[in-house]
Amino acid sequence: MARVITLSVDHQPQQVECTCGDLDLILHERVVAQTEHGLVTGRVVAIPQAAAEAERPRARVVRRLTADDKATIAELKILDAKAFLYARRRITERNMEMRLLTVHHRFDAMQATFYFIAERRIDFRDLVRELAYQLRIRVEMRQVSQREAPQLLDGVGPCGRQLCCSGYIHEFQTVSVRMAKIQGISLSPPKLSGCCGKLKCCLRYEQDGYEAFHKGLPRHGAEVTVDGMKSKVLSHQYIRRITLVARGDGERVTVQSDALRAGAVEPVHSDQPLVASPAPLGSEAFPPRPQERSHRPPRSARPAHPERSPHPPRSAQQAPPQPAPAVPTTAAAGEVPAKHKRRRRRGRGHGRGGQGDSHGGQGEGPAQP
Question: Between vectors from CA 345 to CA 344 and to CA 348, what angle results, nearest 5°?
């Protein structure tokens, strides 16, 4: 009987089964393994299991990861960076319609894999020959899809955690917009799309539970009978297992989804909210905020200023005196009335003669006829 473990190889989404011999390995332990593609490093994701000799895999674990192996990995990262910069420069000079994602050297430094993304097939034979001549190693060019690109680069999703595809998803499954409709999720593209621009993989996680829950339930808008009254189905809640219906009298009630599926409908209390109401302020969930201490006394406790007196109310204030109406007077012959008199403006004069100039003009006086 052979002892077999499952190994997650670094920089590869696939998992490999290896024989571990007499090594007592634990989960998440780093090891060096010999595969059909050469030496690789990885992490143990399944404890050793007994397997028949006929099912014995070809790959085998060589040793646990040592300090020298860690130093080798650090040197390979430097080689990866140098090869990436050189290859990206050559791609730009050749005007090739491709985007280089990353470069990974094999653990024995005898082969380098260049991952790139492109909208169509690219003839990169000349580029491969140039890279192999410059780096003096075997070069492999591998084109990946848009969903596989974040899996290689890694990152953080909208939920704040590591991307599922780079964390533990090894095989992509089909995801459709119908799943979002069944789960009642907004159909806005920014909310449904992941880092790769495709639909999020997490839409698949609870799909089986939602399909089992909606099986046998009436659709939205269907008519059902509740308390002998025709009612209309408004929505279903998968988490609470309830259904919101609108009765004929206009009242909205919630019923148990299992009872609605069986036909024995008993309405729940109509005042029961569909969403849990927040805890009131002052409760244990939300303790009252401590009042801020202020050294300034309140306004009512301040002493009145001896020189200041309170303002009288608006009604007690005296109205401003009204100006007396002007009495029209008769102007003498040849004299311009006062309201028609033209006052000369002091300051810089206008016109050719400079009339009204404070430096050389005339002073104020009656206008000449």
Answer: 125
